[in-house]
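Format is sequence with structure; example below:
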Amino acid sequence: MLIFLSCSKIMITILFFLVCFEFSNGVNVRSSEGRKGQWQLLLNNTGVVGMHVALTYKDTVIMFDQTGAGQSGYRLRRRFNGSRCTINHHDLLDSTCYAHSVEYDISANKVRPLRLDTDPWCSSASFLSNGTLLQTGGFEKGAKRVRFYRPCGNHQCDWIQSKKTLSDERWYASSQILPEHNRVVVVGGRRVFTYEFVPKTSPGEKSFDLPFLHQTNDRDGGGNNLYPFLHLSSDGNLNRVIKTFPRIPGEGSRNYPSSGSSVMLPLDHRDNFQKVEVMVCGGSSIGALEAARKGRFLEGLRSCGRMVITGNNNKWEMEYMPKPRLLHDMLILPTGNILIINGAKHGCAGYENARNASLEPYLYSPNKKLGKRFTMLKSTKIARMYHSSATLLSDGRVLVAGGNPHGRYIFHNVAYPTELRLQAFVPHYMESRYHNWRPSNMTIYGGGGSHAIGYGKEFRVEFFLEKRMQNNEVGFSAYAPPFTTHSFAMNQRMLKLRCKSLDRKGGGWVVAVLEAPPSPNVAPSGYYLLTVVNGGIPSMSQWVQFAHA
């Protein structure tokens, strides 16, 4: 079932988290102090605003901006067609003499420029089963384009623009990978009320009207249903409307340009991955867009709503963040908790439309009691406003990039300058004081020559564990990294996997037998980050591919 939420953004996340209870009591780590995390400055200049960000299975991060921004912070010696970029006035102003997309090498902490032939401004993307990023839409000549990025290990890969195009223009659309046939559904866009599938199965395949988009269109609010939140449920129902959900309580709006955010909470093997719960947080007050255009910045929304979308009792459970928030990202951490990061407290999305940066991330613990779920983390000194983004890395850090509430790169005499600095937020559990409890040296066995593990199949994971936590819990999570832009982490998914056995080999080595997800309805084919979690302390993650055997 593909879920569309009115006034809210929904991202798709798969977590496989398996818990075994076969260790005796061990050392307990204090939980009362020093859990706010740390910030790292990685680069002073990425060259390109990280408006759109995606982690690849080669442990590189793709970032891109709009080509229409003109002069970026990364000037090229040669255009991608081979001609030189000189210091004459024309070339200094020519946007083709500047990069608008880069690949960030995490281990080398360096960026290299990538080629874009058309403008992907405010576009969408999803990873295919082989790790290729299928990117759709954009602005003007880029609005109907389809692009591919196949990650590589030799720094030679680049964007490839398909000769085939979309049926409709897709600017501010969302996309979601589907369970079968390596197909993606692309939904909505500015003044577009349809959805379509990519790739097409026949030359004459067109788009399909979606009444929901007509019903939720707010003409006075700039749409307020752009970048619709999509969630792929695990029940396998597609291509028909089977349920209509209640509107989230309260005033205000959640989707762009109100730009709240949404996440699907981790799926769990203990209920056969059948309980699917979504969460929506933040957004803008009624009239925020019109007010911002007149220089008044209304307070954003504090409210969050959770709803189980499976079963028959579909009701919103409401709660409140510590402060109002919009333009933020919501990411699932390996522990199953949710990180809320970036954003502002007043206004809405769009150029110059927000004020009062949200500098403190929030940690949301979904399994705690209502009223006890939010924790405020360490503040950053760098405002991450409109057109900022974030993504989880395999080493447990969260990469934070971008921020540009202007049509061009502006660094002076504005409230919030164009932001090219690259940061990492380091959750407290990744700090060195937890290394004795951190599972390490993980190796994944299974999948045969293709290294892909079949649905429902057993596979082994070997790792080293020096100390176990007092609560004895050792679990396993599988995470599908998202494509993140405009406060929505598309295709994000986390699963709590089944652990069938957990045995000590001696000398601190442990072997676990895990069970892969049962079907592509639960986990669409592709690459996932597998993490061992020892009582809340995660390992570094390793890539694993799930697919039909």
User: Anything to note?
Assistant: Confidence is low (pLDDT under 50) at residues 6-32. The first strand starts at residue 2 and ends at 4. Helices lie at 89-93, 211-215, 288-293.
